[in-house]
Write a structure and sequence with these properties.
binds magnesium ion; alpha+beta; binds adenosine-5'-diphosphate; elongated; 5-stranded antiparallel β-sheet; 383 residues; 6-stranded mixed β-sheet
Length: 383
């Protein structure tokens, strides 16, 4: 089932005269495709939970509509929407067994949806098998690890056979190893059930690794939507470029001059070659780009975008080399760099001399992005 958000907005009014309130979600207008795992990604407070709660029906939008396929569900109460919810704190009932916890939502069904005890047990076991907790059905939550408790919570969300599965930072309470394991599990469960799943996280690596699509958000405003790789390769603004990737993108204060991208005194790249990246090049776009003329910009270069080259145009002060096996990290400085040290990841064979004071680099065009200094929007070659 696909989910369509139309101008979806949530405003929380201020409580006092000096408190202007906050627009937690600002005119969200996009489609979450059917049967996919979609990551809602952004820093704390950007409106992820509010979005999820509105989709579930637990929070009422200030304006805008929500559609499940073609059905407008905006005014339908949560229990009738067919959503399964999983939160960060698993919120299991401590005095109940795993089986009783998983069965619990079925006991609340009314009218012709009511089930016999046997039917409930059968469904609970089925959901337990799906999350691989079926051997522990008689334990109580305190006899389970955090990862196992979260599986029970997922089984409980699945037992009513929801139309959509909503997960709000489901891995945040787990330690690093369990977090990795459980995210693989969630991916498997989503594939097996084919359920449209929305997964909220502030962790870009988590979102990138698990999602078919990511929705990047900032201050209640959707920034970009796409496959993790396409958003990483084609960030539409500086925020998105900086939010995705470890180590993060290297940002320099730069300038466009005579058709070249300058960092300091060094012309590192011809602007025309960035434009060439654009697949369906349109003349009106060309004019727009041309009119940018000479101006100050931000230049972002991904860590893997540097190539050591004795003739390279970018001169960096060499601080050190960190060996990682196949690759090395070259740690360097530049007066126009925004931050402490430039981190570039290069092939261990590329022969950077660690004893030198300087290292010269060339830049891969597909890894260099130019942003407007004021709006921070991407300037060239945006797809
Ligand atoms: P996230 O889940 O991305 O961390 P939230 O959706 O929880 O963000 O919050 C988005 C914004 O809305 C924040 O500024 C938060 O303080 C505010 N907010 C969330 N819930 C409420 C509420 N019930 N009342 C007032 N403000 C709220
Ligand atoms: Mg939240």
């Amino acid at each position: 089932m696909k989910i369509t958000l139309k101008e979806l907005t949530k405003r929380f009014p201020g409580r006092t005269r000096n408190d202007a309130g906050v627009t937690a979600v600002d005119r969200f207008d996009f489609v979450i495709p059917s049967g996919k795992l979609v990551g809602l990604l952004g820093p704390s407070g950007c409106g992820k939970s509010t979005t999820l709660l509105m989709i579930s029906g637990l929070e009422k939008p200030t304006s805008g509509r929500i559609f499940f396929d073609e059905e407008d569900v905006t005014d339908i109460p949560p229990e009738e929407r067919g959503v399964g919810l999983v939160f960060q704190n698993y919120a299991l009932y401590p005095h109940m067994t795993v089986e009783q916890n998983i069965m619990f939502p079925l006991g609340n069904l009314k009218g012709d949806k009511r089930m016999s005890k046997e039917e409930m047990k059968r469904r609970a076991l089925e959901a337990g098998k799906l999350v691989q907790i079926d051997a522990l059905m008689n334990r109580r939550p305190k006899e389970l690890s955090g990862g196992q408790q979260q599986r029970v919570a997922i089984a409980r969300a699945l037992v009513k056979m929801p139309r959509v599965l909503l997960m709000d930072e489901p891995l945040s309470n787990l330690d690093a190893r369990l977090r990795l394991q459980t995210r693989v599990e969630i991916r498997r469960i989503q594939r097996e059930t084919g359920l449209t799943t929305i997964f909220v996280t502030h962790d870009q690596e988590e979102a990138m690794s698990i999602s078919d699509f990511i929705v990047v958000m900032k201050d209640g405003v959707m920034q970009q939507i796409g496959s993790p790789q396409s958003v990483y390769d084609d960030p539409h603004n500086l925020f998105v470029a900086k939010f995705l990737g470890t180590p993060p993108i290297n940002v320099f204060a730069g300038r466009i001059k005579d058709g070249q991208v300058y960092i300091g005194e060094n012309a590192v790249f011809p602007v025309a070659e960035l434009d060439d990246e654009k697949p369906d090049f349109e003349p009106e776009d060309a004019q727009e780009m041309g009119s940018a003329g000479d101006c100050d910009v931000w230049v972002g270069i991904r860590p893997e975008g540097f190539l050591p080259d004795p003739e390279g145009p970018l001169v960096l002060g060499l601080k050190g080399i960190e060996v990682m096996g196949r690759d090395i990290t070259v740690v360097s400085t530049h007066p126009d760099f925004q931050g402490d040290t430039v981190r570039s990841i290069i092939d261990a064979q590329s022969g950077v001399d660690a004893t030198k004071a300087e290292v010269r680099m060339r830049v891969r065009p597909s890894k260099l992005f130019v942003f407007d200094k004021n709006t921070e929007e991407r300037l060239y070659g945006r797809k």
